[in-house]
Amino acid sequence: MPGQPAGYRPTLEAVAARAGVSRATASRVVNGGAGVRQPLADKVREAVEALGYVPNHAARSLVTRQSGAVAVIIAEPEFRIFSDPFFEQQVRGISRELTANDSQLVLLWVEGTGDYDRIARYLGGGHVDGALAFSLHADDGLPALIGRAKVPTVFGGRPGSGAAAVPYVDCDNRGGARSAVRHLVGLGRRRVAHIAGPRDQTSATDRADGYRDVLFDADPALTAQGDFTVDSGARAMAELLDRRPDLDAVFAANDLMAAGALRVLRERGRRVPQDVAVVGFDDVAGVAEATDPALTTVRQDIEGMGRLMVRLLMRVLGDGGGEGAAPASVVMPTELVRRASA
């Protein structure tokens, strides 16, 4: 404020004095508490604005019993998190929504079961109000660990059958896969291969099921296994060409594997889409439009899913995180985006 010495920081007492209320009343207004009449609350807010008062986070935590932070737990090794743009988009959506809710993001990644004790101690220590966990694998101990910590949680992606009844946000993986394969069949392709994702992730198994929904009698030799990375897509494509050189289309379970497949097709002298049509899944920024040729793919709203995870979590926290507070899970629609590869 003008006329104040350098380094001056207004106190809650100063806010209360300017507003003509008690310190306790000023504290309730500043920290989001209830029970203050609207005219008095308005006076406190005017005083906060006039004085440039910044609430003390520790004091606010004592009043609200909340830390103002949310853990984002990614069940993947560090190199995957920073090399796969899918995670970048989802974390960006989460971060933007948390910022809009005045909450901080605490990023935790899980290299393996050796990290479980560290994650459990952190979650159980009251450092965060809730958690968002995604990229879970089958038989993953994380859901049970989070449940024991009694931290309100929303999952990104449908968890495995053994997980507790926790709300999740996912896309229509199976339906999106069906639309991709139907598109290839509609182009007149008769030997459609599938590069599948990890068998221990529900998104990959759902996409494989969608492929089989359309091609229920497909030759098993037309399916090869990948792990959602570019290199695995390249290896799977080479394997498929060696087994079935007559294949004329490929549905890859994500865009990175599709990019690897395109690389091998080019190396083997196969023209895309003339000889082999290719469709991916995700429509990841910086991948699908950057491939040569540009990739036809199934779009899911990755950033929007991250935002929605936060909104569901905030709804739980707003209800006190108690029994019966969990909102329903959400499955978002997908859309086939047609480009040059198919």
Describe this structure in words.
There is one protein chain. The strands form two sheets. The protein has a six-stranded parallel β-sheet with strand order 2-1-3-4-5-11, covered by helices on one side. Strands 7-6-8-9-10-12 form a six-stranded mixed β-sheet, sandwiched between helices. With 342 residues, it is of the alpha/beta class. Helix 1 packs across helix 3 (38-51), helix 7 packs parallel to helix 8 (142-149) and helix 11 (230-243) crosses helix 12 (255-267). The protein contains 13 helices and twelve strands. The model is unreliable at 57-65 (pLDDT under 50).
Give short descriptive properties of this protein.
342 residues; alpha/beta; six-stranded mixed sheet; 13 helices; 12 strands
Class based on secondary structure composition and strand pairing: alpha/beta
Radius of gyration: 25 Å
* Biggest sheet descriptor: 6 strands, parallel
Strand order of the largest sheet: 2-1-3-4-5-11
N-to-C SSE string, H for helix and E for strand: HHHHEHHEHEHEEHEHEHEHEEHEE
Helical coverage, percent range: 40-55%
| Percentage of residues in DSSP E strands | 15-25%
Compute the number of helices. 13
Which stretches of 5+ consecutive residues score pLDDT under 50? 57-65
Principal-axis shape equals elongated
Count of strand segments: 12
Q: Average pLDDT across residues? A: 87
Note the gap between the termini: 63 Å
